[in-house]
Design goal:
By secondary structure, this protein is of the alpha+beta class. The protein contains five helices and 18 strands. Helix content is about 15%, strand content about 35%. The strands form five sheets. A six-stranded mixed β-sheet has the order 4-3-15-8-9-12.
């Protein structure tokens, strides 16, 4: 079980489920030739997908291309069920960054067959997470900037104003389908610029001026 930190202090519980949204930035949908959805495309990663982002994390290189998808990560602090936006705002504990790691070759094969994506999205270690900072730092959920550099080259840069489903209404929508409990994490979608990771890659991630994380990618062999 992965226990995140908030403002440098370990949280009082491990990460629970991780609720994600696909295609929440139009430019990212376009780069993968996906249509822009009329409703949020939701999926879940299990608790064992969570791992530490800082310093080093591993990717299963034996299963084809592993793509980075940088996202704003939201740590839930209060139980949310059928919540409105005010309840969501009060129920968020902290904010950080995460990588929605995707086995792109595996995902493409599953999509061609009309099968679910879990093998491509929900494997152990599929959601490296930064430390979190208190949600009290956020004055405007619709204006949060974040970026990812790989080997010193800018790969992804986004702002929450470009989300098709902004943070608070997105989480309210999620809470109508899945009860969100303290310790759950919401991944809010990735901007354009996703691409493959290689063992040895050096990554630098930033959220506003609140978080900066450096890390390295290493290889992990995994069963087919």
């Amino acid at each position: 079980m992965y226990i995140p930190s908030v403002e440098g202090t370990p949280a009082d519980r491990p990460v629970g489920k991780i609720v994600c949204v696909g295609r929440n930035y139009a430019a990212h949908a376009a780069e993968l030739n996906n249509p822009v959805p009329e409703q949020p495309v939701l999926f879940i990663k299990p608790a064992d997908a969570a791992c530490a982002l800082a310093n080093e994390f591993t990717v299963p290189v034996s299963q084809g291309a592993v793509h980075h998808e940088l996202e704003i990560a939201i740590l839930i602090g209060e139980r949310l069920r059928d919540a409105d936006e005010n309840e969501v705002a009060a129920g968020i504990s902290a904010i950080g960054l995460g990588l929605d790691l995707t086995l792109r070759d595996v995902q493409s094969g599953l999509k061609e067959k009309g099968l679910p994506w879990e093998l491509a999205k929900a494997f152990d270690g599929a959601c490296p997470l930064s430390g979190f900072v208190s949600a009290e730092r956020v004055s405007d959920w619709t204006n949060l900037s974040f970026r990812l550099e790989r080997n010193g080259v800018l790969q992804q840069e986004g702002n929450s104003r470009d989300m098709l489903n902004p943070v608070l209404p997105l989480i309210a929508h999620m809470s109508r389908h899945f009860t969100l409990n303290p310790g759950d994490v919401v991944m809010t979608g990735t901007p354009a610029g996703v691409g493959p990771l290689q063992a040895g890659d050096q990554l630098s991630l930033r959220l506003e001026d609140w978080l900066q994380v450096t890390t390295q990618v290493s290889a992990r062999e995994a069963a087919e």
